[in-house]
């Protein structure tokens, strides 16, 4: 069993202060926070991975999805959107029997349909990455929140991105989901200013 690495105040055994949402989490949660969350992503396959995972999270906790991440990687062929786009109804039935992932038909079918829309976007803009970063003018939004309660669930940019993706046929891409996606791929830096990762992620902006 993974051990808890923070106190309720967010101070870890290593003496570093982290965002409050990591408090009480296990080592997997810490690695995600310390190495991935808020780091700018410029790779289409990683964008697709987070689209699948954030969509799967809808109505659930992020820890639930994070604990199933490896199973998703296997089930969705290393998040190869070209191959996922070719999944048929047989593929859907296979995934519905996979105990390693969240067996929700609507979420599974949307992941496959979203892969097809993802490819159309890539073909139109040259890459999905080029498309999605347009919504923040190509640079990460650097927020300076001091309390967890200040972090919004949506933004003007996530509203616009959500609407555009829905217009392009994607599902499970509501504004809240897309804001979480923007946080995950570093389009916004929502680490609290007291968190040691805030300055590190800020330095990764361009």
What does this protein look like?
By secondary structure, the chain is an all-alpha fold. It has a single domain (44-192), classed as Endonuclease III, domain 1, CATH 1.10.340. Helices cover 50% and strands 2% of the residues. It has a two-stranded parallel sheet with strand order 1-2. The longest helix has 21 residues, at 105-125. The chain is globular. Mean pLDDT is 92; it is low at 1-10.
SSE order and pairing:
Elements: H1 27-35, H2 44-57, H3 62-67, H4 69-75, H5 81-84, H6 89-96, H7 105-125, H8 128-133, E1 141-142, H9 156-167, H10 175-184, E2 188-189, H11 196-202
Parallel strand pairs: 1-2
Look at the structure and give the mean pLDDT: 92
Number of helical elements: 11
Order of secondary-structure elements:
HHHHHHHHEHHEH
What is the CATH superfamily? Hypothetical protein, domain 2
Features:
206 residues; single chain; 50% helix; disordered N terminus; two-stranded parallel sheet; 11 helices; Endonuclease III, domain 1; mainly alpha
Could you write a compact summary of the structure shown?
By secondary structure, this protein is mainly α.
């Amino acid at each position: 069993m993974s051990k808890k690495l923070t106190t309720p105040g967010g101070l870890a055994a290593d003496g570093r202060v982290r965002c409050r949402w990591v408090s009480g989490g296990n080592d997997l949660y810490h690695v995600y926070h310390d190495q991935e969350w808020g780091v700018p992503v410029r790779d289409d396959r990683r964008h697709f991975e987070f689209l699948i995972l954030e969509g799967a999270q809808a109505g659930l906790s992020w820890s639930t999805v994070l604990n199933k991440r490896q199973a998703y990687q296997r089930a969705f062929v290393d998040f190869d959107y070209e191959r996922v786009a070719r999944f048929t109804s047989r593929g859907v039935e296979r995934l519905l029997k996979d105990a390693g992932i969240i067996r929700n038909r609507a979420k599974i079918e949307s992941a496959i349909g979203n892969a097809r829309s993802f490819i159309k976007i890539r073909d139109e803009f040259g890459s999905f990455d080029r498309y999605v970063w347009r919504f923040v003018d190509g640079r990460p939004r650097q927020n300076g929140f001091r309390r967890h309660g200040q972090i919004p669930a949506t933004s003007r940019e996530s509203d616009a991105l959500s609407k555009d993706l829905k217009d392009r046929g994607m599902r499970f891409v509501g504004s809240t989901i897309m804001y979480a996606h923007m946080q995950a791929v570093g389009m916004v830096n929502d680490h609290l200013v007291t968190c040691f990762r805030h300055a590190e992620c800020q330095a990764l902006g361009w």
